[in-house]
Specification:
Number of strands: 6
Distance between the termini: 23 Å
Radius of gyration: 17 Å
Strand content: 15-25%
Number of helices: 4
Helix content: 25-40%
Order of helices and strands: EHEEEHEHEH
Strand order of the largest sheet: 2-5-1-6
Structural class: alpha+beta
Shape: globular
Largest sheet: 4 strands, antiparallel
Length: 141
């Protein structure tokens, strides 16, 4: 089994086919999207492929070590994860191909009008996972 991170982006990826920002969705559309995500995770829990997943709130702060007792906090000037990362899911699957399959399925979560978003998801293996020849073939395309 190999662990992969499925990273959902607010922006920074190519625009999805159903490119209506969530803040413009109706409450029913948001509920349908969240339910799809829950159902997807529950199915993967049953198959043993779900590790963890969370939606992230848009708030966030940059913090770094800057000497004893002085962690600076800033709201910029860098692009912040609160603007980029909407949530994540960790899966543990047998093959890279299965990870691709699940990422594609997760991309079909409904959005505005109940239509699939077709959002881009970033699929990244955990560092401890050794890439395979198959992984290398797909890395460029």
């Amino acid at each position: 089994m190999a662990k992969y991170l499925l990273l959902k982006h607010y922006r920074g990826a190519p625009a999805p086919a159903n490119d209506v920002p969530m803040e413009k969705w109706t409450p029913e559309e948001i509920s349908a999207h969240v339910q799809y995500m829950r159902d997807f995770a529950e199915r993967l829990e049953k198959s043993g492929e779900f590790v963890d997943g969370q939606a992230l709130a848009p708030e966030g702060t940059w913090v770094r070590y800057d000497g004893e007792g002085r962690p600076p906090v800033t709201d910029g000037p860098f692009a912040e994860t609160k603007d980029l990362i909407a949530g994540w899911m960790v899966i543990d699957v047998d093959t890279y191909e299965r990870a691709l399959e699940l990422a594609g399925e997760l991309s079909a979560a409904p959005g505005a009008g109940g239509r699939p978003i077709h959002e881009w998801l970033e699929l990244r293996p955990f560092y401890a996972t050794s890439p395979t020849a198959t992984d290398d073939c797909h890395a460029s395309g």
